[in-house]
Amino acid sequence: MNSLLTKQVIDLHARGYHLDFAITADYGVLCIQSNSFFLSEAVELRLAAQGFDQLSCCQKYVYTVETFTGEQGLLMADVVFCGNR
Question: 75 to each of 35, 53, 69, how far by Cα in Å?
Answer without folding.
Answer: 14, 15, 17
